[in-house]
Amino acid sequence: MSIWEVILAFVVVVLMLVALLANVLVLMCFLYSADIRKQVPGLFILNLTFCNLLMTVSNMPLTLAGIIYKSQPGGDQICHIVGFLETFLTTNSMLSMAALSIDRWIAVVFPLSYHSKMRYRDAALILSYTWLHSVSFPIVAASLSWVGFHHLYASCTLYNKRPEDRTQFVIFTGVFHTLSFLLSLIVLCFTYLKVLKVARFHCKRIDVITMQTLVLLVDIHPSVRERCLEEQKRRRQRATKKISTFIGTFILCFAPYVITRLVELSSVVHINSHWGIISKCLAYSKVVSDPFVYSLLRHQYKKTWKDIINKILKRSSINSSALTGESHNRNILQLNE
User: Fold this and answer.
1) Which residue ranges does UniProt annotate as crossing the membrane (predicted)?
2) Which of 16, 215, 271, 287 is deepest in the core (most CB within 10 A)?
3) What is the pLDDT of residue 101?
4) pTM for this one?
């Protein structure tokens, strides 16, 4: 193995470990907190977490094995199953993010009618569509034998070995990425930019009230005035940062891989194998970032996982103190004897 392959293998191992821990923690928060389970977006986050966990335990290990051994890990049947899952899970994850953006758009732009427009039944229908949409492409690919081990990405994924099917495969790949990556990106941009517009409008209203209050309060201390102005500035930046994170991570993680897959279809451009694996690792990094972007850094989830950790530490401290007490009593009995 070259130094590049060692680095890439190490990166995949780190991504696997962090993705597994982070997504399991999200799942624990969902099971632990009744309030999270009651919320409609919790269904979309649960679906996204399920996809991320399955991607972590099925696709990442085979990519790691492909990097190390430079050949197809396992038999053809295993590779076909993993390739099927990779196509299904990637599409499902993208559409789940689009569903979460639609939920936020309805909640912010139509707050009074949110509970009537986005119920559990509506969320279940959206999830049903995402599953049908996601499973249709790998079914077509598997039926046409367009799933296999691709050396460029060291992964079991969409791959055409027959030159006579090249035109059909090019069309299929273009349609697939258009209706998965591009569709999700358009939905994300439309919904979150609408949310940002509403957020900025409310910020302007609050800024006007704040400035009027500061003008009226003549005897206010300068430090209080400065804190108010700083909070006003932070408020304007908060929504922009969040929405930039949602859209930015989606583009940064998925765009290089999707562009590489499309460029690869051209026989003119040669793609370096190291770049192919790097683009795949960037796509895997979305599995790592999703738990933090959509769940663990939010106040409700943060409070829940802190409660879980405190509960585990409290139990372990009680158990250790009980064991210490038992050993102390035994020592006293031995001295008395």
Assistant:
1) 6-32, 44-69, 123-149, 169-195, 243-263
2) 287
3) 94
4) 0.84
